Amino acid sequence: MRSSLMALACLAAVFGPWAGDVRSQNPPAAQCPQPRFTGKAPEEYYSRSNPLAVNPAHLAAGRRLYEKDANPGCQICHGIKGDGMGPLSGQFDPPPRNFACVQTVKGIPDGQLFWIIQNGSPGTSMPGFKALREDQIWQLVMYLRVLAR
Is the pLDDT of residue 48 over 70? Predict the structure, then answer.
């Protein structure tokens, strides 16, 4: 019985961060807001709004892309909760963007997020995701907005 409880505790410690609601914890105050100095996207992108209607299908697709279907999945760096604490996050300087921080994300226009996802962010380890279709990038932008609530 005791070994079963220990095994469950170990599993909870390992998989706990990936379970439950992505908004269940707020990021530490020291990481919010998170400064970043990524250059402004070209105006034809910067001023764009997400053309997709917010609905469960788009949000679910954005979540799947974020968690596993984008190559690599966003969560590997940004964390399953979007808090910038993914398994590889300690390898990067500057650290991955903390999307769970409302103060950081609310001032970034949709078009800027789209541009960064598509083209990457110079001076950081954020790669461009050229293989994603435009609708997939917009689904990711929509999902990032959910992480910041």
Answer: yes
pLDDT of residue 2: 36
DSSP symbols for 64-102: HIIIIISSS-THHHH-TTSSS--TTGGG-SSPPP-TT-H
Q: What is the structure's pLDDT at 107? A: 86
Tokens found for residue 59: 């949000």
Q: Helices 110-119 and 134-147 sit at what angle, rounded to 10 degrees?
A: 120
Q: What pTM was computed for the model?
A: 0.78
- Do 41 and 115 touch, CB atoms closer than 8 A? yes
Token duo for residue 32:
């919010």
CA–CA separation, 116 and 122 (whole Å)? 9
Q: What amino acid occupies position 6?
A: M
Alpha-carbon distance of 80 to 25, in angstroms, equals 11
pLDDT tens digit sequence for 51-77: 999 999 999 999 999 999 999 999 999
> Nearest Cα to 139, choosing from 58, 35, 20, 46?
58
| Cα separation values, 112 from 83, 96, 117, 147, Å | 19, 16, 9, 17
Amino acid 45: pLDDT: 96
